[in-house]
Amino acid sequence: xxxxxxxxxxxxxxxTLMLVAILFASIYFKPDWWAVLSxxxxxxxxDYGPWIFEKYPEVATRPPWVEVTxxxxxxxxxxxxxxxxxxxxxxxxxxxxGLPNLAQLQQRIYELEEKGERIPLSxxxxxxxxxxxxxxxxxxxxVVSFASVIIFASGFMIGGARLLHSExxxxxxxxxxxxxxxxxxxxxxxxxxxxxxxxxxxIAGTVYGGYExxxxxxxxxxxxxxxxxxxxxxxxxxxxxxxxxxVVGMFLMWMTRLLPKVKLIDLPTPAGIxxxxxxxxxxxxxxxxxxxKYLPKPYQMRGWLVFLNVIAGIGMTGMGLKAWWDYGVDDxxxxxxxxxxxxxxxxxxxxxxxxxxxxxxRKGTTTAS
Length: 369
Fold this sequence. Notes:
about 375 residues
């Protein structure tokens, strides 16, 4: 993590400068602010213009719902990122996570979970106040992070609407990041190095940070699903995750060479629809259930936060299902075929998880006896 901390600081400085530049560019190009506001709060998905079919036929073959859904995942991430973030929060030692008897407390919580009982937290007013105060740090971190993402995404969408759309340019193929440089170079050509450095650090940080985040994603999932693996450490998980990410990642990249019909954009599309957007909606709904089932009332989410989770949960789950229906419907892997395939994967995953979990439970019982 030491190398990543240094990279993170440099990345933060460059990205902050780029964020300011994008904000300035958004104002500089004088967009239709009423259209920006109305599009933000009443989103709509327009049809492709005629020039898309003429100049970019490969783009036109992808349903608009699929494109928008994949963009949302690329911008906001998915549950796998948030689970990894939880793992990193664990290492901050905030609140109960900083107690010396944390292992015993976790074991107690696991036992309560298996019995379906709530966590016996103090409901005294002062204790509740102190406990909820610890939620401010991750709340501020999350709000600032997502606000930055929204500003970046909005700036690039405004630039795309004002410049790329008018010039009939679509980032595609090997030119995924080239055209967007105009958002800054139209102001001054000396801003090109800032754009290049910002893009490089964003990609480098994502690639390097992905190993750290997904190591913790795997760590948190293994500990939660398989009781027999609750004593493993992050160091034990990291080599296997790095091996998996490296080998499988390289295989997927080369698959576009081995199978010419498979396009590069086809690789992240299913993961973006299912793993990014649809399961993110399910994550929101699961948070409500978890909150109500395991936490005493004083610690539960307020009504407005539950309402927002319900809206986000239903909206993103519905968007994912709609995009999955549209994805590849002409190639016989969309529509009902896609839903049947998805249901089969879910059932297979549940059965596999149950078998592995049963094995580790029996192993733990044998060891204890």
